[in-house]
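re: ur question from earlier - yeah i can do the single chain one, its not a big deal. heres the input i used so u can compare w yours
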Amino acid sequence: MSELDVSFGDVSVRLRGGAPATAPAAMPWPVAEAATPEPVAASNDHAVAAPMIGTFYASASPGTPPFVEVGDVVAAGQTICIIEAMKIMNEIAADRGGVVTEVVAQNGQPVEYGSPLVRIRIGGA
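and the output i got, formated as tokens:
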């Protein structure tokens, strides 16, 4: 477009183009710094990952004890936490049995799909 006339009541504006504008040179994407690697867990440690996006809760309701704590022995299928997604409380079960070595997620904090919730040492202490 090289010309534009616009009128609103008593106001009138006329724009006329001159030399075509050149597009600015493309800016390179910033290079992301390498992510700091997480500490390498022992070969028999397993992280139970979040199966959905939501809010992590360590217990069934405020004031009640958490489902699991460090040092607890858990069985496959045992509830280890709750993730609230779209106002629905979803119980998350351990996919393997063992001893809880770390509760990674913080109570009441958002978690993303695949983020570690709890670390379990497979086969005991």
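The first strand starts at residue 3 and ends at 8. not sure if urs matches, ping me
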